[in-house]
Design brief:
Quino_amine_DH_bsu; globular; single chain; 5-stranded antiparallel β-sheet; 2 helices; signal; 6% helix; mainly beta; 7-stranded antiparallel β-sheet; periplasm; WD40/YVTN_repeat-like_dom_sf; Metamine_DH_Hvc
């Protein structure tokens, strides 16, 4: 068989086809896109219904997150990294978000470094960090593990080695000012009108109170009489302040209150949350951030579950019970929405925000009247991985 080269006519036709194809491709090719310019956009100005949801991401604890939500629309605004079992708190003026966290040089092992990180609440950008002693408590977030003093001068950090102490961070000089030993006591409870005073709940049922000097060192310590029996009726460490009044709830359904006076705490008589008719079904409080109080001090909301037993105190709410704080009477029972955390916003249109721990959902409710809890105003589903705590701006 003999192969012959293409004829000139064939080569001419092929060249024309290639040229035509190239011209068509050139005509249909889209223009080059402009190079992206990276910018940082400020978030909508925060109001009383901005929500901060702490998520320790239990499946990979070294990578905790703080989710930032517009509670008016349930729009997801952004996220901050919280490292290993981090805690968060807003500054006294609400302009900064503090994160106390632990980092290891080899992610989950190696040299440990504990830091306070500061982020702007307007755009969530990192501002600065302060290294602190490697004692910061590594725990699920609850109120009282990280808190600024009311005047914004110091930041108080709960430690556990497991010995308990509080690191005092000077936010003006951006350095550690002191470490205060708090043996047998837990939590940092600031006094609203005493910026150099904080308290801690102790294992013997008393309240220890610490005074700071102007440099952040301990100037005085006092201890109250016992206000609860830790063997018979232990209290949850979550607390709610209303002005100078402070409230706790116990495992077995008692409400404890106290007034923080210049002379020290003055304790109210405890009162029962569970009416006698409901005790036979074993109703008790449960959750992490299991109760909240309206800013005006008129209503108390508590997550409750029935058939309670030893160890069921973290059970999501089957119902939310509403109380009149003036009369100590229950005035409503609503669905529980699987609540493990809840908080009421301040401002002209306060809302109750509930974190559904069974479905990782954030719900908001109108609290103008108790019927408002029968149906959510809004809902955000699939929020994070293991969210546990809600704070409001």
């Amino acid at each position: 068989m003999t192969f012959r080269p293409w004829s000139r006519s064939c080569r001419t036709v092929l060249a024309g086809c290639v040229a035509a194809f190239a011209a068509t491709a050139a005509m249909s090719a889209p223009p080059e896109l402009p190079v992206d310019q990276l910018t940082v956009t400020k978030l909508p100005a925060p109001d009383a219904n901005r929500v901060y949801v702490s998520d320790p991401t239990m499946g990979h604890l070294v990578d905790g997150r703080l989710h930032v939500i517009d509670g008016n629309t349930m729009r997801y605004l952004g996220m901050l990294g919280m490292g290993f079992a981090g805690q968060s708190a807003l500054s006294a003026d609400k302009h900064e978000i503090f994160v106390a966290s632990t980092y290891y040089s080899r992610l989950q092992r190696g040299t440990r470094t504990d830091v306070i990180e500061a982020y702007g609440s307007d755009d969530l950008t990192f501002k600065y960090e302060i290294e602190i002693p490697p004692k910061h408590v590594e725990a699920l977030q609850i109120r009282g593990l990280l808190t600024p003093t009311p005047d914004g001068r110091f930041l108080l950090v709960q430690n556990a080695t497991p010995a308990t102490s509080v690191t005092v961070v000077d936010l003006q000089q951006k350095r550690v000012a002191a470490e205060i030993a708090t043996p047998g006591c837990w939590g940092v409870i600031p006094w609203p009108q005493q910026p150099r005073r904080f308290s801690a709940v102790c294992g013997d049922g008393t309240l220890a109170t610490f005074e700071l000097d102007d440099k952040g060192a301990q100037a005085k310590r006092t201890a109250s009489a016992a206000f609860f029996d830790p063997d018979k009726d232990p209290i949850f460490m979550h607390f709610e302040p209303v002005g100078n009044h402070l409230y706790f709830v116990s495992y077995h359904g008692q409400a404890y209150g106290m007034e923080l006076t210049d002379q020290g705490p003055k304790f109210d008589a405890p009162w029962p949350l569970v009416p006698a008719a409901d005790k036979k079904n074993g109703w008790q409080p449960g959750g992490y951030q299991l109760f909240t109080i309206r800013p005006d001090g008129k209503r108390l909301y508590v997550g409750m579950h029935d058939h309670a037993s030893e160890g069921s105190h973290k059970t999501p709410a089957k119902q939310i019970w509403v109380y009149d704080l003036a009369t100590h009477q229950r005035i409503a029972r609503t669905p529980g929405y699987g609540s493990i955390a809840m908080s009421v916003s301040r401002g002209n249109q306060p809302r109750l925000f509930v974190l559904d721990g069974e479905h990782n959902a954030l719900l908001s409710f109108d609290i103008a009247n108790e019927r408002g809890l029968q149906k959510p105003l809004n809902r955000l589903d699939n929020l994070g991985e293991t969210p546990v705590h809600v704070e409001l701006h």
